[in-house]
Structures are given as C-alpha cells and as structure tokens.
Amino acid sequence: MTHVIPDQAVGLKLFRIVGEDLRACEAVRFVDGAASVDTVLRRAGISGRVDIGGDIKNHFADILDDAGTIIETVALDAKSYGALKNHWMRCKLERNP
C-alpha cells in the first residue's frame, strides 16, 4: 500500500453509504497531524482496503485540514472502516438534526 498524505492533513471523517443514506461520523483531529493520519490509515490497511483517491463504494473517509476543509478522499471497505471507527480512531455517528 503506497499513499501520500498531504502535509496540511490534521484529521479524518468517516462515512458509509447505507441504501440511499449517507451516514457520517464525527471528525477526529490528530495532534501530530499528517504523521498521525498516515499512521492510522496504514494500520487500517492491514485490515482491508485503503485507497487514497480511489473509487468509492460504500465506505470512505475525508482527509481534513486545520479549517475542516476536505483535501482528499480515501476509499475504504467495511473491514478498514470498522478498524478505524472501532479501534484506531474511535468515533460516534453524527446525529441528524
């Protein structure tokens, strides 16, 4: 798995598509920025697919900069999504208003 994390990366936000619904998780910000984003994506890659800029199917993550702007998208599969959400960057689903 080879990927390049943008230097301005500081966080990730997970998403999954269920039927017609897009379910978002709370964004997670990492103290060490791009180095930490790279580390958690490499760890998730052990469990499954992690493809920066790849074709999105049902699971993906947005790489965020300091302002919360999307700077890249990462295609995931169910196993890598689960590894991120439940182990490497525990986060909850966002509530719909």
Write the layout of secondary structure elements.
Blueprint: E1 11-18, E2 21-24, E3 28-29, H1 34-47, E4 50-52, E5 59-64, E6 70-76, H2 78-88
Antiparallel strand pairs: 1-2, 1-3, 1-5, 4-6, 5-6
Helix pairs in contact: 1-2
Q: What is the helix fraction of residues, given as a range?
A: 25-40%
The count of helical stretches stands at 2
Q: Main sheet? A: 6 strands, antiparallel
Count of the separate structural domains: 1
* Amount of beta strand: 25-35%
Ends: how far apart? 38 Å
- Low-pLDDT parts are none
Shape: globular
- The gyration radius over C-alpha positions equals 12 Å
Give the helices and strands as they follow along the chain.
Answer: EEEHEEEH
Content-based structural category: alpha+beta
Whole-number mean pLDDT: 93
Strands, total number: 6
Folded structure, characterized:
The chain is an alpha+beta fold and 97 residues long. The protein has one domain. It is built from two helices and six strands, in the order βββαβββα. The protein has helices at residues 34-47, 78-88, and strands at 11-18, 21-24, 28-29, 50-52, 59-64, 70-76. Strands 1, 2, 3, 4, 5 and 6 form a six-stranded antiparallel sheet that branches. Helix 1 crosses helix 2 (78-88). The relative contact order is 0.27.
Question: What labels describe this entry?
Answer:
six-stranded antiparallel β-sheet, alpha+beta, 2 helices, single chain, globular, 97 residues
